[in-house]
Fold:
Amino acid sequence: MSILGQHLLLDLDGVSPGLLGDTAQIEIVLREAARLAGATPIHAHFHHFGPGMGVTGVLLLRESHISIHTWPEHGFAAVDIFMCGQAQPETATAHIAKALAAESHRVRKLDRATASARQDVGWSERSDAQHRSMHR
Structure:
């Protein structure tokens, strides 16, 4: 089977609004999550949207990326973790949920794989020609 990486979507609820607006702390949490998962950061970019507002950011990894978008007004953060190779994205999700002290969290996992390896229900296979005709 040709699974090339794992893509995890992490939804965090009940997180402190102050923490969700703290760009520096969010970067620290994501960098530590990458380290614990066995991944190697190569670049980071984070943006704060202003007083009382959220943060969006991405930590590029040799193994792919971790990105986050926060909504302090809802106590919510959405995290996207994609890792290839020997990295352990589940370890990253556990660290992020704990470090952000989420009251609850939900993880969705998708194996990223070549067409010959995909057997997941819900995959929609289209050829390039089909894709182009849909977007005219």
User: Anything to note?
Assistant: Residues 10-112 form a domain with the S-adenosylmethionine decarboxylase fold (CATH 3.60.90.10). Strands lie at 3-13, 41-48, 55-61, 64-71, 76-84, 104-113. The mean pLDDT is 90. The radius of gyration is 17 Å.
